[in-house]
Design goal:
By secondary structure, the protein is mainly alpha-helical. Helices cover about 70% and strands about 0% of the residues. The chain contains five helices and no strands. The model has no long low-confidence stretch (mean pLDDT about 90).
């Protein structure tokens, strides 16, 4: 991608951030909510995206170095795993999809099968304990049969 490509992408990120921020502003306020409300996190994400897009548009990289096809394939696989994970959470519960997704992503980082399996199992159990018992979220550990 050239400098012009960086600027075009930066403007696209700015437009996406503005649309995301506008969408966040339309979120309804629940009767009982935390002090920040449901708009705080999406607005923070929109603000950071806007700043990143502005930096990219105003100061493009003079000599961009794009990754090879192998890296792009790894990124596409990671994105596919995360999309599948999001769809699998409700029917399969938290533990199994999290262990599988974390194992695949761990294998992509360091291709050692035993380490990836242990990382997937450990992250799944550790995150479940953290979310369920420390943060008090109502996670379902396994599918409801």
């Amino acid at each position: 991608m050239t400098r012009t490509g960086d600027r075009i992408f930066g403007v696209a990120v700015i437009l996406g951030a503005l649309a995301f921020g506008a969408s966040a502003l339309s979120l309804p306020e629940p009767f009982f909510s935390d002090p920040l409300g449901p708009k705080a996190f999406p607005l923070m994400v929109a603000g950071v995206s806007f700043l990143c897009g502005a930096v990219m548009a105003l100061r493009p990289d003079p000599d961009p170095d794009w990754p090879g096809l192998g890296t792009l394939g790894s990124l596409a696989l990671a994105a596919a795993v995360l999309v599948a994970y999001a769809y699998a959470l409700k029917p399969l519960g938290f533990l199994v999809p999290t262990a599988i997704a974390a194992g695949i992503l761990s294998y992509q980082i360091e291709p050692r099968p035993i380490g990836a399996v242990l990382a997937g199992l450990g992250l799944s159990a550790g995150l479940f304990v953290l979310f369920r018992y420390v943060l008090g979220l109502g996670l379902v550990p396994f599918p409801n049969l």
